[in-house]
Amino acid sequence: MEISSRVRMIVNAAREIKNGDVVLVGVGLPNIAANLAKRLYSPGLIMVYESGSVDCSPGRQPLSIGDPSLAENVSSLFSLFDNFSYLIGGGRIDVGFLGAAQIDPTGRINTTVIGDYENPGVRLPGSGGACEILYHSRKSVVIIELNEAKFRGRLDFVTSSRKGLSDDGETTLQEEVVITDRCIVRIRGKSGPEITSIYRDTDRNELKMLADRLGISFPDGVTVLEDPTMEEMEVLGSIDTKGGK
After folding, report:
1. Cα 100 to the chain's mean position, in Å?
2. What is the DSSP string of 177-223?
3. What count of other Cβ atoms lies within 10 Å of the Cβ of residue 198?
4. pLDDT value for 245
5. Burial (0-12, 13-18, 19+ Cβ within 10 Å), 116
6. Which CATH architecture has domain 5-239?
7. How many helices (H) and strands (E) does the chain have?
8. So which residues are the catalytic ones?
9. In 3D, which of 3, 6, 51 has the Cα closest to residue 32?
10. pLDDT tens column, 72-100
11. What residue ranges do the domains of the chain occupy?
């Protein structure tokens, strides 16, 4: 059975979550991936939404971070101030799930504009909580397609950036995992992006040429990821009813 890149991205993003993780969930594919993980193999994960919903189990797939379903079956509801100051700013988020329009080799992302800021080709929703989430989360997972329009040496606008060096000069940059439609790219510490695993149907030669153009390391012997299981596909289908196969 043919498996779409969308399904591969969601499933592999969900697999990045460990049981018991505190996960800050963004809208779109990150939202679906976190809910898939909670329902299938990480029941102890604590989902936190920017709107202040903490440890919720919505009865249906939430449409946005302000969906009323996020106030159902919930452990607590935080104000925006408490959420951003105590949970996010306090370093209590294990995994920050984000989408992006563009990403650069250091892991910085653009969710603001495509083109010139004053006269953009496309004006995007902006940061929301992405700036704080990417900076403060212990680990970040970004879901984005791998192509030259989205992986950029120079972003059209820097919306969010990872944490810099500590006062004593030691590297404290968090791990950033980039889930793409062809492979998984990891950015660790101060090192540049590296492909660490590929999907089973990815053309290695084509990916190698693209990675070279984008400045992404593609070492020999990378892991070939297992296809989504039937169980993952079935559970995902019940969550992502409009997403296709």
Report:
1. 8
2. EEE-SSEEEEE-TT---EEEEE-TT--HHHHHHHHHHHT-B--TTPE
3. 19
4. 47
5. exposed
6. 3-Layer(aba) Sandwich (3.40)
7. 6, 14
8. 50
9. 6
10. 888 999 998 999 999 999 999 999 999 89
11. 5-239
